[in-house]
Amino acid sequence: MNTEDITSLKIPVAVVRRMPKYLTQAQYLRQEGVQWVSSLSLAETLGLTSSTVRQDLSHIDFQGVSKRGYSTAGLEAALARTLGVDRDITCILVGAGNLGRALALHEGFGRQGFKIVGVFDSSPAVVGKKVGHFIVRPMSSLVAVVAEKKVEIGILSVPHEAAQAVADQLILSRVRGLLNLTTAHLRTPSAVPVVDTRVLSSLRELAYAVRSR
Amino acid sequence: MNTEDITSLKIPVAVVRRMPKYLTQAQYLRQEGVQWVSSLSLAETLGLTSSTVRQDLSHIDFQGVSKRGYSTAGLEAALARTLGVDRDITCILVGAGNLGRALALHEGFGRQGFKIVGVFDSSPAVVGKKVGHFIVRPMSSLVAVVAEKKVEIGILSVPHEAAQAVADQLILSRVRGLLNLTTAHLRTPSAVPVVDTRVLSSLRELAYAVRSR
DNA sequence: AGTTTAACGTTAAACATTTGACAGACTTTA
DNA sequence: TAAAGTCTGTCAAATGTTTAACGTTAAACT
To answer: Whole-prediction pTM value?
Structure first.
């Protein structure tokens, strides 16, 4: 046996968190027609050191070129492959309140490969209504839709109180990961990763930064 | 001279990031009528170790009690004070697209002290329209509103391409911090902190977690 | 062709964070 | 009033992350 590909063996979480930023920037530069980018210039635009950038990019299966830097197109492709966003990912959204509807209507995620294939809500008042081109479905149809459409990711935008119960239903329906937009902390089996995007927490973190001076 | 209050001297960022979670949980428990909470039980519900919790809470100006733990009400108050969210914070929102409108309509932030006092957009097609009880204002009125209402925080939900320019305008208008909901990386003077809430980055991070196995 | 030099990739040191361990404090119980 | 037991606060070790430094590679130029 052979440690042939160090690259694919557990990338540090701090690095994984930065990878989407590199990807966004590589994508942007490539679209602007820029062909090469150096670790220093990436660092400057993302507020990091060039050393961190080089260290981070050493985890992906892609080489820079002396005196030029990294090819933007190559970097974009390699990062997308590493993150697993080089193929579409099907998602469903649970909770068709203001935030849920905003996300369902936002086309950017779809363009980046995150395809929403269903919008669910537990409230009979909302079920059956249209959100963009979606018709809001009842929670009872969750399991069937996840199975049929091979849904990988569930996006939660329900009220705090309902969050854990909905998360449990999503896990039972066999989604593979959760994006949590609620303020609740979700408990899941370790095979079902959760990433939190808490706007309220971010506001509070910002309050500290603004006021502790 | 005297190092009297170790508590108020630079709390590690990792700790500041967790404080909003402790606050949310303390608030929830207090509302449920729970009076005491131990570091172990906080740790279990938030997915941490009890050691981390005790270490973290030692940074706030509040003491636990042997054999009982922390008073939920006391903890809530102390955390709010430490984070600076014990008084209202005025915010404005720039970008009245789907996401911006959803946030403006979301009442939860207001209940937590983040008072939105204005919604702005650069598009003449949107200016003057209503979003909830707000009338969308033109960017030209930004400086005056920030000064008049003593706005501390600007929330950005504009398209990627416009983000830096809008951030610059917000900084000139003298907001003290930015919540960035765009995919752009914002460059600001160090006196103006930025906290990012990138849904797309979170989705990508989740893609890695789901697919790298 | 050879030299220069910009940039990468990697190492190791510095720094930050997390964790386990335990003394001491306080409540409870008898 | 004393003993038992539980939970905090803190220390120090372990782990994880960031950074500077430097050898190496290959493009560009003479």
So the answer is: 0.94
